[in-house]
Amino acid sequence: MEQTERSTAEKVAAFIKRRFAMIDEINRKYATPQIKMTRNVKTALLLLRVYLLLLVLLLAYKFFTMLK
Amino acid sequence: MERLSFSSSIFYKYRRVVKAFKLYLVLAGPGIIVMLADNDAGGITTYAATGAKYGYNLIWFLLLLLPVAYFVQEMTVRLGTVTKRGHAEAIFHGFGSFWGWFSLLDLLLVNWLTLVTEFIGMTAALHIFGVPPFVTVIVVCIVMAAMILQGRYWTWEKIAFLFCALNVIYIPAAFLVHPSVSSILEQGIVPNIPGGFNADFFFFLMANIGTTIAPWMVFFQQSAVVDKGMKEKDIPWGRLDTFIGSFFTVLVAVFVVIVTGTVLHGMDIESAAQAAQVLMSTNQFLGTLLAIGLFNAGFLGAICISLASSWAFGEVFGWAHSLNNRIKEAPWFYAIYFFTLVTAGLVVLIPGAPLVLITLFVQVIAVTLLPAALVFLILLLNNEETMGKYKNTPLQNAITWAIVGVIIILSTLYAVSTLFPGLFK
Q1: CB contact A6 to B (< 8 Å)
Q2: Could you report the per-residue pLDDT of B157-187, keeping only the tens digit for each?
Q3: Amino acid B3: pLDDT
Q4: How far apart are CA B410 and CA B208, in angstroms?
Q5: Among A1, B60, B68, B77, which is most buried by a count of CB atoms within 10 Å?
């Protein structure tokens, strides 16, 4: 019984490990952006970051005002 | 002799047209399906409410959405056929893993929430006929499973076409209410602002543009183009397919507005199911058509949205991710498909689940992904190394940046107005 439980736990651990390994592999594969980083591209990405940050702040503000 | 050559030239022209039409039928699919699926439960609700509130007065605005939808979705055809990558994979490849993970996980969340809203629409539509929600959810899951488990992209596409054909049910419905054609032309075609430019009017403009382009559409069409195996020489057909799809999506929207603008003008309608229910009491046949249309709209949206997520994950993780694969060959692809489908269906069945909140939340979460997906799309279309002669021309850039700018501003304001309802009033 104990052996079965251990083997199940090991299987789950191995499964999770494999998933993380897969994510690591994807991160390595796409570590360098392949698009040419022209000034336009850099500006667009910067504006996107600012836009998303503002949106997150807005959502956080809404969340906290709802809690109050 | 001359007569013979004249008749033979007509014959050859006829044969060329027939051959071209047959070729189009082979290549048609992603554009029409994605565009008609865009008229999903949320879309139909928005159009129904627009017609009820403003009558025919906003038809001109819906007509403007045709080029908007076409220019955005046409880019996915070119990007997919040239790079042979779905949009998720293209983002990872082009912009690295940070933007890749952001887009992929955000897409999963947005798609799942949208899928919940499709189930809300479908269960509400069939509830009008007395079908309990759990029966609707089970039947929908079984039919959708049967559609993808037959193991062929082509078969899935042809079945999806049948549901697309049902999406135009609103056109005969509009003829049943005998609208005044002169009133439609007078009030609907010339741009006008009924009651002045106030907060309500602005909200409806935002809602209508918000339903025209959803993040899942960009991901879905690009992946479908790749899965279908379209080549660069097929791009003109892909464009035609997208244009026909854009035409029909706007046509259906206009006819929904005509139906509710004729019989429900002046009423505050909160959902298409409510519109169908109200119509049931006055014209049962029309109410039935509207309810069937709403169910079909939700179903069409659901089959595309769940596939968009599965394709995206398959592309990035390198799993087999084609509808041409059997379940044993692509277990993760089908696992994600069923996981998103079944969990979204179950949420609708939870007693007291915050369904209204989810419906509102979709708009907010969608704007965290939509600008990124659209900006990446244009940037990738300008990458000469990968796109070659298919990269955006300066004119295409001017048009698409303008369209994307307007979409981002209006959809963001729509989301903000959802978060803070009193802000624009």
Answers
A1: no
A2: 888 889 889 888 889 988 988 898 999 998 8
A3: 61
A4: 10
A5: B77
B118-132 average pLDDT score: 92
Residue A31: its chain B contacts at CB < 8 A? Answer: 96-97
Q: Say if the Cβ atoms of B93 and A30 lie within 8 Å.
A: yes
Residue with tokens 């970051």: A49
Residues A65 and A41 in one domain: yes
B308, B324 in Cβ contact below 8 A? no
Whether A51 and chain B come into contact, CB under 8 Å, resolves to yes
Across the A/B interface, how many CB contacts are shorter than 8 Å? 53
Cβ B364–A59 below 8 Å, yes or no? yes
| Interface contact A36-B383, CB threshold 8 A | yes
CB of B113 less than 8 A from some CB of A: no
Question: H helices of B84-96, where?
Answer: 87-95
Helix (H, G, I), strand (E, B) or coil at B236: helix
Complex ipTM value: 0.84
From chain B, pick out residues whose CB is under 8 angstroms from the CB of A32: 96
Average pLDDT, chain B: 88
Q: pLDDT value at position B375?
A: 93
Residue A38 structural domain: 34-68
Give the closest residue to B330 by CA, choosing from B299, B301, B307, B304.
B307
Are A38 and A24 within one domain? no
Select from B94, B367, B375 the Cβ nearest to the Cβ of A34. Answer: B94
- Residues of chain B above pLDDT 90, percent: 47
Q: What is the mean pLDDT of residues B212-238?
A: 90
Global confidence as pTM: 0.88
Q: What are phi and psi of B406, to 5 degrees?
A: -65, -45
Same domain, yes or no, for A38 and A66?
A: yes
Residues A40 and A24 in one domain: no
Place of tokens 């702040």: A57
Which residues of B are less than 8 Å from A48 in CB distance? 371-372, 375
Mutate to test the interface with A, among B101, B379, B408 (most CBs of A within 10 A): B379
A62 and A42 together in one domain: yes
Q: What's the structural domain count of chain A?
A: 2
Q: Classify the phi-psi angles of B58: left when phi > 0, otherwise alpha if psi is within -120 to 50, otherwise beta.
A: alpha
Identify the architecture of domain B36-419 in CATH: Up-down Bundle (1.20)
Q: Which residue matches tokens 């592999």?
A: A25
pLDDT of residue B150: 77
- B371 to chain A: nearest residue by CA? A48
User: What would the two tokens of residue B202 be?
Assistant: 């602005």
| Residue B153 pLDDT greater than 60, yes or no | yes
Interface check for B419 against chain A (CB to CB < 8 A): the answer is yes
* Confidence grade of residue B347 (pLDDT, cut at 50, 70, 90): very high
Q: What is the pLDDT of residues A49-64, one digit of tens each?
A: 998 998 888 888 888 8
